[in-house]
Specification:
Length: 216
């Protein structure tokens, strides 16, 4: 595994240079937004993706994919475990989102390539990283600083709740990423609605899979 992680590490450093940290789309033309989350059954990864209308937050489409985990969980290399299932679920969609929210970090990562950035590059779609805790850096005010760079902004989406760490995934600026996250929060939920729905959907598929496997 050490040889493999060294290979992944080098690849992440190389891919991080390709991440676009500015708005590579027209904000007014965004119509569909999606959230993607994962759950696990045995050695399988369940990737659930929910596409919503940007204005009404109504569900337009949802899809899921289940794939064997190619590697076990290794901190800092989540995309290598969950990525294949996420990519497969995304390709099942008939209504492709203009922006994808990922329950993971973007550039707020030891090698500036968390899963949100990695997925953004793989799918060539604007992505936003939404994470519940930091994996690197120091907090200064509402910003997360790592190696003298602002890599994330903390956003409190619900009173008394711990803030979320919002970071650039790919093809979006931090300012715009924060704007969209704030816009997509639907009280009383802490997570932006597409991610909240994806989380619930992933859990539902997981329950079904567990039931199915019990009966086999």
């Amino acid at each position: 595994m050490k040889i493999q992680t060294e290979k992944f590490r080098k690849e992440q450093i190389k891919l991080a240079r390709k991440v676009v940290k500015k708005d590579d789309f027209v904000k007014s033309e965004v119509k569909l937004v999606a959230g993607v989350d994962t759950a696990y059954v045995d050695n399988d990864v369940i990737a659930a993706i929910v596409v919503c209308d940007i204005n009404t937050l109504e569900v337009v489409e949802k899809k899921y994919a289940i794939k064997k985990a190619p590697i076990p969980y290794i901190p800092g290399f989540l995309a290598y475990r969950d990525g294949p299932a996420i990519v497969e679920a995304f390709h099942l969609l008939e209504n492709k989102p203009d922006i994808l929210l990922v329950d993971a970090h973007g550039i707020a990562h030891p090698r500036f390539l968390g899963m949100a950035s990695h997925i953004g590059l793989l799918l060539d779609v604007p992505t936003i990283g939404v994470a519940k805790k930091k994996v690197c850096g120091q907090i200064e005010g509402d910003k997360l600083i790592y190696k003298d760079r602002i890599v994330a902004q903390m956003v409190q989406t619900r009173e008394y709740a711990k803030p979320l760490f919002i970071s650039v995934g790919h093809r979006i600026s931090l300012k715009t990423a924060v704007e969209f996250v704030k816009r997509l929060v639907k009280p009383p939920h802490k997570l932006p609605e597409p991610l909240h729905l994806a989380h619930r959907y992933a859990d539902k598929i997981r329950e079904k899979e567990l039931e199915k496997r019990k009966c086999q």
